[in-house]
């Protein structure tokens, strides 16, 4: 292997430099193969670890006399596999004994330290007296310097902070300017043959402080007659103005602030204030006000970096020729025709892997107020990033006419308030966004300001802007009001600017667009709407939850407070800078994220296939064939019967009652019978009940061992965060609707032990009207609030009983089929897992009924609803599941075994001999005339309308349809993730080649400028290839390397060298 020699330099503690040569091998250049070879590549990942701390390497601070056992925080007992915890209530206990030692060492730096007795200059080694002029540089180190060496050392380091020894202490109010330093711009501080005679004062903002110094510009021929602005930029100082600049910021300071803005949400005023107080806490050094200057510089810096990353300096069209959305950091894993999709992808059998998965949502926290004396402030590069093209967008909205509420599912706040949203004093009421739902990146031109709520006119423009010029198999969009938004989507398309209308064939759009409901938001929809539109049941969707925008908003909302008061252009730049950083970090995170998701999907796919097989094994061939035909027909035509829906009864369901209550109050508002409010009584109670139901869901999820640990903790934490956000809105509304409850909630919080951890989401008390006494409801609640909760709880009890009966029938059928036809441990285990899932659902339904009934009893008399009796565990049975005494139970068991053998024999003889009715009745009811005790749940509310066979058939069919959908979605998820990994590798290779081509661009610059343009392009190409190699190695570790070689990828490409 070839070798190269580099010259290295080390600095000793005293500041002396030691030079030496380093010989290192030159890495072998990596060979990158064509995209077609990636089409055969299969990523191989290791099985998911059950230990969440597998990659955790503890680091302990070991002090003298402190044993290792005292430092252990979390260890694993290898014998039992359980975690031993030695968590201490005082994490500072190991350091506290050393506090005095640390303090004394800090004070040691206040004097001469080790040089106290024999001070001397580190550079020239000249002995110095204790009262002589000694200097020390805070940025160079702790060594001593004489005045001459200090000036000589800092000719090229004018921004360093020096201190002078007075004989008693270090005076920090000393500067290099006071020592006579005049920095020569254009020569790195060294002398210029022909400098300008004028000396200028300059304020320079460094990453850690603000420095005032004297400078002199260059006027010699070596400087190529560069202007003052050019000389400052070549020095690495960014001028605040192009006319006689007196304030600059170093490139490092601007980079540092840009990172702080995106990561820590630091604003300009706080950043500058911190620099002004650095070393000047007593404000004894007067500094110029540079807040406005730095704000302008940082805004320009962010814009220029966006342009630089987009390759605008490598294009003859330049910045002015930037196309809409061209400066966005694109998602590496999303399909882009001609970039990361294989040749001939339209002939692929699995077309769904080439779909574009998007989500839409609105965020009303990103408001922007009118400014009284606002000046015109157009954004820099408007429309080139995530924001839509502002002039075209505003022109489109001028023709907007108020839309009518077209909701036929349930009254959503987004629909009800889109024309009544309070926008007083606001230029912008929020933001609408279209983002990648699988990878949570913002789309090009996928972000737009909302003026008056979440109107179709705004969201239509944002959506079509975000998918403009896309060439994919299908666009699958999730939107929380998608069931209504999609109804007239194609009709509204004609109202958009022609530039946004996709190419059409025979007058119809060529794009295949499917709109679905996200998982979490979909739960508030009517059951018929939810089952027809849920992304869980969409063929080719994989397993996205469709809630990506919520996670984006959770991060972006940290900007809300700052951007609310900004001007239009400043706000645009801040959000664009944040979006670029966000997208880049999401892309880089795919190296680990896609691998972990593939691990989880591989396990889940196998488990769901076994679950489906277990259910199908219990069905006869004619029934299964009929259900499969029903399932396939429905996926081809959603107007046909829905296999995910049970028989629809006329009983009032919870969803229907909710919708009716909200519609009634909406009618009252429209007719002027009720004052307009942002939220009505019914909506407030519905929100409380949803929060209550979410608490049960979170508690069940936290205990669900069927979910992989690495995914369960993440899901639970996300659910808790989302729950607390909704709780904040509920508490705010509670102060109006239930002041008595709000006071109790506040008292509970004040009485809580401040040293104890706050309760988790599932343990927070909500204080609904049913939690108050009658007197408290009458005196401290809005009139009629309790009646609204009663109606909803009645519907909850009705739904819970109906769903419980359906689940019990399905469970009984599966249990008896397992007993009759299950053989071996494998079949038994699969059956047990399926039945356990049903048991969990039955238990949750029972808890929901008990909670609703308990609330009803508190809100009304005990005999007001006699049909809703106390539900005990032994009531959760079908009528023949129990006998009057133990003897009859034994006879039932014996008879059940004989019936099972009879049915089993019949099935072996002729699989079609017994119909679904015969098999269900033979096993469920039994053949003898035994006397049974009937549970009251089968006669409540008049009892079920269908006979046992119909109930069993209906219940099992719904469970089978859901099991098949789960199995198909997880299988699709595996295939989609593998293709996404290939797309990431293709994108990075394409990006490297793209930058290689840009390196050939001949810019109209001087030789040094052209060299910089070329160097940047080559560095970006190098980084893209290194990223690709890193991703490739991560996804091809271990046994995966053999699979790669078989797939046509060379051994060099599996190497980490680049």
From TrEMBL:
Segments for region (Disordered): 886-907
Superkingdom: Eukaryota
One Pfam family, short name: KDZ
Comp. bias intervals (Polar residues): 890-902
InterPro entries linked to this entry: CxC2_KDZ-assoc, KDZ
Lineage start: Eukaryota, Fungi, Dikarya, Basidiomycota, Agaricomycotina
The name this protein goes by in its record: CxC2-like cysteine cluster KDZ transposase-associated domain-containing protein
Domain CxC2-like cysteine cluster KDZ transposase-associated: 176-277
């Amino acid at each position: 292997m070839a070798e190269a020699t580099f010259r290295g330099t080390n600095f000793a503690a005293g500041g002396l430099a030691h030079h030496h040569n380093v010989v290192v091998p030159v890495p072998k250049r990596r060979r990158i193969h064509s995209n077609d070879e990636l089409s055969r590549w299969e990523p191989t990942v290791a099985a998911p670890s059950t230990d969440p701390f597998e990659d955790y390497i503890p680091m302990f601070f070991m002090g003298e006399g402190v044993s290792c056992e005292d430092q252990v925080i979390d260890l694993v007992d290898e014998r039992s596999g359980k975690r031993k915890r030695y968590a201490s209530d005082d994490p500072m206990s190991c350091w506290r004994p050393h506090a005095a030692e640390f303090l004394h060492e800090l004070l040691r730096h206040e004097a001469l330290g080790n040089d106290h007795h024999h001070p001397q200059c580190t550079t020239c080694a000249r002995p110095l007296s204790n009262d002589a002029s000694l200097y020390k540089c805070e940025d160079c180190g702790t060594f001593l310097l004489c005045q001459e060496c200090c000036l000589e050392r800092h000719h090229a380091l004018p921004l360093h902070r020096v201190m002078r020894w007075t004989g008693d202490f270090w005076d920090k109010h000393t500067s290099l300017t006071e020592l006579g330093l005049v920095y020569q711009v254009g020569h790195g501080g060294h002398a210029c043959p022909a400098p300008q005679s004028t000396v200028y004062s300059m304020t320079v903002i460094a990453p850690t402080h603000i420095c005032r110094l004297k400078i002199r510009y260059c006027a010699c021929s070596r400087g190529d007659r560069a202007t003052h602005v050019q000389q400052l930029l070549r020095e690495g100082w960014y001028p605040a103005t192009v006319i006689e600049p007196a304030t600059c910021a170093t490139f490092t300071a601007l980079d540092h602030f840009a990172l702080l803005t995106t990561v820590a949400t630091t604003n300009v005023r706080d950043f500058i204030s911190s620099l002004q107080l650095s070393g000047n806490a007593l404000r004894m050094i007067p500094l110029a006000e540079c807040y406005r200057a730095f704000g302008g510089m940082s805004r320009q810096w962010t814009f220029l970096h966006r342009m630089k990353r987009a390759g605008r300096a490598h294009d003859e069209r330049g910045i002015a020729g930037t196309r809409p959305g061209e400066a966005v950091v694109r998602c590496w894993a999303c399909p882009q025709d001609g970039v990361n999709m294989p040749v001939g992808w339209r002939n692929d059998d699995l077309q769904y892997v080439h779909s574009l998965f998007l989500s839409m949502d609105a965020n009303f926290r990103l408001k922007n107020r009118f400014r009284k004396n606002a000046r015109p402030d157009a954004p820099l590069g408007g429309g080139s990033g995530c924001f839509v093209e502002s002039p075209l967008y505003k022109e489109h909205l001028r023709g907007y006419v108020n839309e009518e509420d077209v909701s036929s599912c349930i009254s959503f706040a987004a629909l009800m308030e889109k024309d009544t949203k309070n926008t007083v004093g606001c230029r912008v009421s929020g933001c609408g966004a279209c983002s990648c739902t699988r990878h949570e990146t913002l789309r090009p031109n996928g972000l737009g300001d909302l003026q008056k709520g979440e109107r179709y006119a705004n969201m239509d423009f944002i959506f079509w802007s975000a998918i403009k010029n896309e060439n994919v198999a299908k666009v699958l969009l999730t939107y929380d009001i998608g069931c209504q938004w999609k109804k007239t989507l194609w009709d509204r398309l004609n109202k958009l600017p022609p530039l946004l209308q996709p190419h059409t064939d025979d007058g119809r759009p060529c794009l295949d667009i499917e709109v679905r409901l996200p998982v979490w938001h979909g739960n508030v929809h009517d059951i018929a709407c939810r089952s027809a539109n849920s992304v869980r049941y969409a063929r080719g969707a994989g397993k996205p939850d469709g809630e990506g925008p919520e996670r984006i908003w959770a991060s972006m909302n940290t900007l809300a407070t700052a951007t609310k008061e900004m001007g239009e252009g400043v706000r645009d730049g801040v959000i664009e800078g944040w979006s670029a950083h966000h997208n880049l970090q999401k892309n880089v995170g795919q190296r680990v994220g896609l691998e972990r998701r593939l691990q989880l999907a591989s396990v889940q796919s196998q488990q769901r296939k076994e679950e489906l097989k277990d259910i199908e094994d219990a069905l006869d061939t004619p029934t299964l064939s009929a259900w499969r035909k029903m399932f396939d027909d429905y996926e081809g035509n959603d107007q046909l019967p829905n296999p995910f829906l049970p028989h629809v009864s006329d009983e009032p369901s919870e969803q229907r009652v909710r919708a009716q209550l909200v519609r009634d109050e909406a009618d009252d508002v429209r007719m002027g019978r009720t004052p307009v409010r942002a939220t009505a009584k019914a909506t407030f109670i519905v929100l409380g009940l949803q929060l209550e139901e979410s608490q049960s869901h979170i508690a069940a999820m936290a205990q669900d061992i069927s979910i992989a640990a690495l995914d369960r903790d993440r899901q639970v934490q996300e659910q808790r965060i989302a729950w607390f956000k909704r709780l904040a809105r509920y508490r705010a509304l509670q102060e109006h609707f239930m002041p008595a409850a709000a006071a109790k909630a506040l008292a509970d919080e004040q009485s809580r032990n401040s040293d104890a951890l706050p309760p988790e989401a599932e343990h927070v008390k909500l204080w609904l009207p049913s939690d108050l006494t009658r007197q408290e409801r009458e005196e401290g609640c809005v009139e009629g609030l309790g009646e609204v909760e009663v109606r909803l709880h009645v519907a909850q009890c009705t739904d819970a009983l109906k769903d419980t009966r359906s689940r019990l029938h399905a469970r009984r059928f599966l249990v008896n089929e397992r007993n009759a036809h299950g053989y071996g441990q494998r079949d038994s285990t699969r059956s047990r897992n399926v039945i356990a899932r049903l048991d969990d659902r039955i238990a949750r339904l029972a808890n929901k009924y008990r909670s609703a009934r308990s609330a009803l009893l508190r809100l009304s008399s005990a005999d007001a609803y006699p049909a809703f009796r106390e539900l005990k565990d032994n009531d959760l049975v079908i009528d023949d599941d129990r006998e009057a005494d133990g003897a009859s139970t034994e006879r039932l068991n014996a008879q059940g075994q004989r019936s099972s053998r009879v049915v089993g024999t019949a099935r072996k003889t002729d699989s079609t001999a017994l119909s679904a009715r015969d098999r269900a009745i033979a096993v469920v009811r039994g053949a003898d005339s035994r006397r049974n005790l009937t549970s009251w749940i089968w006669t409540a509310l008049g009892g079920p309308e269908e006979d046992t066979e119909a109930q069993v058939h209906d219940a099992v069919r719904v469970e089978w349809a859901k099991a098949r959908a789960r199995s198909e979605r997880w299988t699709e998820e595996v295939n989609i993730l593998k293709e996404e990994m290939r797309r990431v590798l293709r994108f990075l290779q394409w990006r490297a080649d793209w930058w290689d081509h840009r390196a050939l661009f001949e810019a109209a610059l001087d030789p040094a400028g052209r060299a910089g343009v070329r160097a940047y392009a080559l560095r970006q190409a190098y980084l893209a290839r290194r990223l690709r190699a890193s991703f490739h190695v991560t996804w091809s570790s271990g046994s995966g390397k053999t699979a790669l070689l078989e797939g046509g990828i060379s051994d060099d490409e599996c190497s980490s060298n680049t």
